[in-house]
Amino acid sequence: MRKPETLHADYYQGNHVAHGDLVRGAPEDFRTSIKRYTQSYVFDAAYGDTSLQHIDSVSELWYESVEAAAASFAHPYYQQVVQPDGARFADESRNIVHFATEDVLGRPVLRGQGIKVHLSLTGAAGTAPQDLAAFLDAVYDESGSGLDHLLGRARSSLLPGAPVLSGIPPTVYESYWLDGEADIPSFQRYARVVLDRGQHEGVLVRHDWFYLLCRERRVLDSIEP
User: Fold this and answer.
1) Among 9, 43, 75, 217, which is 20 to 30 Å from 56 by CA?
2) Distance CA 206, CA 101 (A)
3) pLDDT interval class at 6 (50, 70, 90)
């Protein structure tokens, strides 16, 4: 999240351009440990609770393992260059940082194209992760055809046993790639179905959700689609 005194334009310049260049130009052993790095910049959002923090962007980094990520964070280049640079424009004490596994649902997603929507959800107490996943699949099977011009869909779930590095993460978040802004209303209708049904069936926390409308940027990517 950006610092309160930082403009959106300066945050984008600092994060995507300057910060991204530091990663792209990093020593080879550090750079190649990151298999994919994307940044999604929020241009609109909806929150289930007005007390939830405003989110400016979502950064996602892919590693081979938790151990590989830990080694990357301990690398002198990260400690001495990358991390201090982030503190110039971001209030890192407010960040939510955690490990997750991503499952692409259906055809390969078109990363960096169209509009990416992050739908963040928290499961109700007693709801097992696999039951929440089954619920989301059932809703998509019944109502997903209403999503106009969907370019791809993926689900990220907390990695069991992995530490949470900062903040309180969601139980699961799904990503949807839409062709353009004209397709946003269809997602809004779909999200309302997910939220209303999830609360009615008791699998979702009533107000602990948000979705972010983003423009995704690819910083690094060595993973085949």
Assistant:
1) 75
2) 24
3) confident
Q: Which two tokens stand for residue 14?
A: 């600092």
Burial class, 34, CB count within 10 angstroms (exposed 0-12 / middle 13-18 / buried 19+): buried
Tokens of 204: 């979702």
Q: What is the 3-state secondary structure (H, E, C) of 76-143?
A: HHHHHHHHHHHCCCECHHHCCEECEEEEECCCCCCCCCCEEEEEEEEECCCCCHHHHHHHHHHHHHHH
User: Which residues on adjacent β-strands are paired with residue 215?
Assistant: 41
Look at residue 117 in the predicted model and tell me its pLDDT: 98
b/e map 93-116, b = 16+ CB within 10 Å: eebbebbeeeeebeeebebbbbbb
Task: With a cut of 90, say whether residue 213 has pLDDT above it.
Answer: yes
Whether residue 50 is predicted with pLDDT greater than 70 in this model: the reply is no
Tell me: pLDDT of 114 over 70.
Answer: yes
| Distances in whole angstroms, Cα of residue 112 to Cα of each of 32, 37, 44, 95, 216 | 20, 11, 17, 22, 5
Closest CA to 16 of 151, 169, 215, 181: 215
Q: Positive or negative, the Cα torsion across 47, 51, 56, 59?
A: negative
Please state, in angstroms and as integers, the Cα–Cα distance from residue 63 to each residue in 49, 85, 222, following that order.
Answer: 32, 21, 11
Tell me the two tokens of residue 60. Answer: 């996602």
d(CA 54, CA 39): 16
Answering whether pTM is above 0.70, one says: yes
pLDDT at 162: 94
